[in-house]
Amino acid sequence: MRLLFLYFILIIVSCQPMPPQPSPPISKVDSAMVKQIFDEVLVNGQAYDQLRDLCFNIGPRLSGSENMVKAVDWSKKVMEDLEFDRVFTQDVLAPHWVRGKKESASVRSKIAGNFDLSVLANGNSAATPKKGITASVVQLDSPKDLEAAGEAKLKGKIVYFSRPFNQTFIHTGRMYGDAGAGRFNGAASAEKYGVVGVVIRTLSSAPNNDDTPHTGNGAASAVPTLSMSVKSALALEKALEKDQNLTITMTINSRHFDEKTPTHNVIGELKGSEFPDQYIVVGGHLDSWDVGQGAHDDGTGCVQSIEVLRALKAIGYKPRYTIRAVLFANEENGLAGGERYAELAKENNEVHLAAIESDGGGFTPRGFGMTAGIDSLMKVRSWLPLFNKNTITYINNGGGGADIGPLGREFNTPTIGLVVDSQRYFDIHHTDEDTFDKVNKRELHLGAASMASLVYLLDKHGL
Amino acid sequence: MRLLFLYFILIIVSCQPMPPQPSPPISKVDSAMVKQIFDEVLVNGQAYDQLRDLCFNIGPRLSGSENMVKAVDWSKKVMEDLEFDRVFTQDVLAPHWVRGKKESASVRSKIAGNFDLSVLANGNSAATPKKGITASVVQLDSPKDLEAAGEAKLKGKIVYFSRPFNQTFIHTGRMYGDAGAGRFNGAASAEKYGVVGVVIRTLSSAPNNDDTPHTGNGAASAVPTLSMSVKSALALEKALEKDQNLTITMTINSRHFDEKTPTHNVIGELKGSEFPDQYIVVGGHLDSWDVGQGAHDDGTGCVQSIEVLRALKAIGYKPRYTIRAVLFANEENGLAGGERYAELAKENNEVHLAAIESDGGGFTPRGFGMTAGIDSLMKVRSWLPLFNKNTITYINNGGGGADIGPLGREFNTPTIGLVVDSQRYFDIHHTDEDTFDKVNKRELHLGAASMASLVYLLDKHGL
Questions:
Q1: Is B53 within 8 Å of chain A by CB?
Q2: pTM summary value
Q3: What are the Cα distances from residue B200, in Å, to B175, B203, B339?
Q4: Is A58:A74 a contact under the CB 8 Å cutoff?
Q5: How many CB pairs lie under 8 A apart between chains A and B?
Q6: Cβ contacts of A206 on chain B, cutoff 8 Å
Q7: pLDDT tens-digit profile of A82-141?
Q8: Which of B38, B366, B427 lies at the smallest CB-CB distance from A390?
Q9: Cβ separation B170–A421 shorter than 8 A
Q10: What is the ipTM of this complex?
């Protein structure tokens, strides 16, 4: 009985992160290590070349696509070639949606004229009949206005959600959140009012003459939904001012498969010397939307995560904890990779000291956002002086990443997101324009070096 | 006599900046004003549209070119149309150099093969004879190595200065300074050793496969000098490893005019209510190199400076000091505009509270660099909490701008430079790639809003 009790105690202890240990304050050694890490990444970093390879030789890689299968093999091989201590995959079952033949939408108006809209179906959208849906249009700011409009006004109509990005916000992520409801749940919310189609002003921070539509996921609905470029949205609004009876014809040829599609998280490890069964995760997501090359979203986070391990290994650093680069599956349309990672961590009694994610693009780093207890937050903030003032200048209270969210939710694992300069991200996010040429080598590598430095500090000083 | 004395006293007082006055610490009013300024620029800013116009309808504008004449007229009209209180020009006489027919350089080697180099003559370079100069090559790191090499080894040769950018520096401006001697004074230094030509690895932060040569000024010399792309430089080095006797043939068709060329500083003013004869300057330089469109260097600084006045006027702010947007002539190959501005300030007994320059590209702002007394520096630092952490996060001790340098030198005027994210600037600086499409609207406008906020704070609180 006592033995059994001891056994339980051992399980409990092994499932908890190490309690905060007395660790020396940051020192000249830390300063020299951070400098060595930055030098290694800036001079010998391979993330940029890996990203070129991923973008041009594989390209976009939505869950269920051949490209995603290739990307899993590719990233596994990259990490094996770098001779990480262990490279393996985790089986994941992900939602399966395909766009099919290119979508279209056009306006017909005897008063305002006929013209095509530059559009992309939103991810997860239902298909239209082959001949499309034609209906007149009700313009609303966002789904919150559906109820006031009411079924009588909305039934049989296409709803246009027009909410623009609020340009007064400094961080564009805030704009995205503020304007996003039309895409996130516009179709799902509109369904009960008898709406037959939803079109939205695309979620873009680009200037008004930008003609690039953005895709991205929304809640499941029988109502087909698409995004139109800012330029098209403004043209539609102008036309609606002249003719409230104009019609839109929209065609979407998507298919949603009931059966989930097998995919994989890809994981590389540097084994810890003191706490080999406790983990520090650094990750991004390997899947992308089916347009562009998935460069900034989130090829950059993947190659940065691999670079963290490569650089630490290259400078001969022997971690105390096991450091994992996790390339998550299916962030874009399901989050099945992140959920599965947390599920397996539970099954395997894995303990995580912290998890870091890069999923805001490979731009110049500006800070970290951290969701953790106040003591951990203050500890990480005490490391700020180690970073150059043109890289990491703050540690936000709050932040993390979609893929590491389940770890935080299930285990209270501290989660940390790399915050980068956000101005260019939502110009190209989820578009044909998210391509390798938009990535600057040094910006990408500064992000990787910032993450590697944080991993080093977490590994040395604990949390 | 007493009246005359009083007159002298008045002159002396009027020539000195106001002594530091007791001013209230930053307040909610300041915070609201900074927010209002940022909102105005981010929502209604015209800098981006003005820059498009300047880049596409005028383009590159070296001193002495027709385009520079057009740019003077254009910027005067822009500020007149904005109904600034006063718009005027200052006559400037600038050095006059033209590139002429496109330069060329090629390698000949029986062992390593023959190939062309991707080159641009450095500004101010002497011409070669029409048939070019052909000579074998001595590779040196930088001009400091000339003396050790000695005349015997160098006479009749082309010297190749190979110093690369040191990628371990975080701010790319530091790389530029560190690697720049080959261009800044390579030809002038090499002349006395009987060197017949100087070629350098171009001053670029871009990856090794980048094939874009950068131009830029160097000290006067009879020795022709050009820059070759990073890709060409590495190809040359590889060839030199195989064949130390290879030759380079270089042709430069430039012309330097003895007579200076007339050009203009263009100035717009918002008149001060309390100190109309004391000035706060915000500026950039209107001239550019003769390649690309002069977008980031320094079209952005010009349109940002105009935007500062536009935004302050638009929100109805009545400045105490006279606020000047100064678009300086001839920064690139002479600095005659900045020198002339200071000269006229002296002639006219003008007093300047401070001068701000934007000449590091229109990228996201990160800080200001300030050359001033410690009290002024600490005062400006006390305003940091007014800025969003994703814009201005530091006030460097040291900094300013080339064009406002003479003001600082002659009057001890505090000079302040906008420091922006530097990672992309030296990829395109002084090249065919410095074009409008490299500028992000919000990044540009965040810089303008940061400058306008600083102008407001200087105007309100003094220095």
A1: no
A2: 0.94
A3: 15, 8, 29
A4: yes
A5: 73
A6: 441
A7: 999 999 999 999 999 999 999 999 999 999 999 999 999 999 999 999 999 999 999 999
A8: B366
A9: no
A10: 0.94
